[in-house]
Amino acid sequence: MTVIFKYCDDNGLLLLNLNDIKKVFQYAINEGKDEIEKEYGIISSSTVGTIMRKLIELECQQADMFFGEPSFDPIDLLKIDDEGKGYINILRL
């Protein structure tokens, strides 16, 4: 996973959802194999297969709802009640 994230970061590719990650893995073991191996080392197809199965498992559990756009919007935290009093929101990031 680290190699894929590094490759995408180095090449300005966005990974917005699980489908994007799967596409990059497919690229890494097919047409992009030589390019990625030259810069980052060998990624075995069995490793990619294992990761792809786990990504599919996450999709089946609807975990893809935690990824993608739109991202967190601070405006969602600015709310008031019927008396005009604001809510206090505490986030730990």
Attribute tags:
mainly alpha
What is this structure, in a nutshell?
It is built from 4 helices and no strands. It is mainly α.
Order of helices and strands: HHHH
Helix/strand-derived class?
A: mainly alpha
Q: What Rg do the Cα atoms give?
A: 19 Å
Helix content: 40-55%
How many beta-strand runs? Answer: 0
* Whole-number count of domains: 1
Shape: elongated
The fraction of residues assigned to DSSP E strands is under 5%
Could you tell me the mean pLDDT? 88
Low-confidence stretches: none
Euclidean distance between termini CA atoms: 22 Å
Number of helices: 4
Biggest β-sheet strands, sense, barrel: none
Layout of secondary structure:
Blueprint: H1 2-10, H2 18-29, H3 33-40, H4 45-60
